[in-house]
């Protein structure tokens, strides 16, 4: 009984920590969605940057909401997850919105890079001209890739190898899966998409940094000032701050895949902490890097 009470107290503590991280994240993403929707109603249109931010805010809000509900049930009412359909749907939507979060973020970084960076390459100029038309297709492709991972996660949760007893209290609500040849393709697909979206962010940061360096050298040579320097610096701050946060999140995602088959409670707890911080922290960075969102936030805070 003493051990059981300790486990229960530990589960309640974990849920409390996750709640303190998830609810501010849901609030800041809901704020982004509301501001952009109001602007959409007033202007009857949204630019490409706002379209990406709108879908990114929606995906992060629902990811945090569903992930929090899943963890809450896992720790407080684990019996509800013994129903196979509930577990499958929770895993499906959580994986889908998590992948949407990663791909929309990568699209945003790529959009900043193409719009702001200056290169004389013909292909880059073509992308700069066509990027606004490409954004809806990129967002649609991101959702298709995310749905593919969600379907794979649904299939994994449906396998008999999944241990339903893993939802008991004290196991961090993780469906411990026996790693074998049946599940290797699932982990490979998810890992490939993690790495692909991460590489988009890295290349966007490198190209934008190189463009900033060339632009600054040209300005020093010609002894003139250019307003695009401010745009470069603002975008670099946003992308590099995102790169740091994204790198931590990427490591946590990989560790989560590695330790999903093991009972590494302390490490799993740290992984959960960083994963729940990421959607809210990066959205807060995006708010303060966007003049419209920053002005609206500072207006409602008092």
From TrEMBL:
GO terms for cellular component: membrane. InterPro entries: TAS2R (IPR007960). It is found in: Membrane. It comes from the Eukaryota. Keywords: G-protein coupled receptor, Membrane, Receptor, Sensory transduction, Taste, Transducer, Transmembrane, Transmembrane helix. The chain crosses the membrane at residues 12-40, 52-70, 90-114, 135-154, 187-210, 239-261, 267-289. It is a multi-pass membrane protein. GO terms for molecular function: bitter taste receptor activity; G protein-coupled receptor activity. Belongs to the G-protein coupled receptor T2R family. PANTHER family: TASTE RECEPTOR TYPE 2, TASTE RECEPTOR TYPE 2 MEMBER 40. This is Taste receptor type 2. It comes from Calcarius ornatus (Chestnut-collared longspur). The lineage of its organism: Eukaryota, Metazoa, Chordata, Craniata, Vertebrata.
């Amino acid at each position: 009984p003493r051990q059981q009470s300790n486990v229960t107290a530990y589960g309640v503590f974990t849920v409390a920590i996750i709640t303190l991280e998830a609810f501010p994240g849901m609030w800041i993403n809901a704020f982004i969605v509301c501001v952009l929707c109001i602007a959409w109603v007033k202007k009857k249109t949204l630019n490409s940057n706002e379209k990406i931010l709108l879908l990114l805010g929606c995906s992060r809000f629902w990811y945090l909401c569903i992930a929090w509900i899943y963890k809450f049930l896992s720790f407080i009412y684990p019996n509800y997850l013994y129903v196979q359909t509930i577990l499958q749907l929770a895993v499906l939507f959580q994986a889908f919105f998590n992948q949407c979060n990663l791909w929309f973020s990568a699209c945003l970084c790529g959009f900043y890079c193409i719009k702001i960076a200056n290169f004389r390459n013909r292909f880059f100029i073509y992308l700069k001209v066509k990027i606004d038309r490409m954004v809806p297709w990129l967002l649609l492709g991101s959702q298709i890739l995310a749905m593919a991972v969600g379907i794979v996660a649904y299939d994994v949760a449906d396998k008999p190898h999944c241990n339903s007893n893993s939802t008991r209290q004290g196991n961090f609500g993780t469906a411990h899966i026996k790693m074998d040849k049946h599940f290797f393709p699932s982990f490979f697909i998810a890992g490939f998409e993690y790495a692909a979206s991460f590489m988009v962010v890295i290349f966007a940061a490198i190209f934008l940094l190189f463009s900033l360096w060339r632009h600054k050298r040209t300005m020093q040579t010609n002894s003139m000032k250019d307003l695009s320097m401010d745009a470069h610096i603002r975008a670099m701050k946003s992308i590099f701050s995102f790169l740091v946060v994204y790198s931590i999140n990427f490591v946590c995602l990989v560790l989560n895949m590695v330790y999903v088959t093991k009972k590494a409670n302390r490490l799993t707890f740290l992984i959960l902490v960083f994963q729940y911080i990421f959607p809210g922290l990066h959205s807060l960075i995006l708010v303060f890097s966007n003049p419209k969102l920053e002005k609206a936030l500072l207006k409602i805070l008092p």
